[in-house]
Write a structure and sequence with these properties.
Length: 88
């Protein structure tokens, strides 16, 4: 059994037929050249969430939030399932 990750990868690649080795190489090249990614595969966006929310809100029409209920936390079941409305 291979001692480390690189050895495991090499063992797996060596066991593949040549056409699958080419496919694996293309995949590795794609992964290696992916811009702005962290080791876990997540994209990097280091802005605060409030800044991202503001950016999204700026792209929305001004009247977007006019019809949003202000008692959503109290009457969530009413808005989702048409349960009787609770008084705040």
């Amino acid at each position: 059994m291979a001692a480390n990750l690189e050895d495991q990868l090499i063992d797996k690649v060596r066991a593949l037929p040549p056409n699958k080795q080419q496919e694996a190489l293309r995949l590795l090249n794609t992964l290696a050249s992916a811009p702005d990614s962290e080791p876990n595969g997540a994209s990097v966006d280091r802005r605060p969430i409030s800044e991202i929310v503001e950016e999204v809100n700026r792209a929305l029409p001004e009247d977007t939030w006019d019809d949003v209920p202000t008692d959503g936390s109290i009457n969530l079941d009413h808005y989702l399932y048409r349960a009787p409305k609770q008084q705040p």
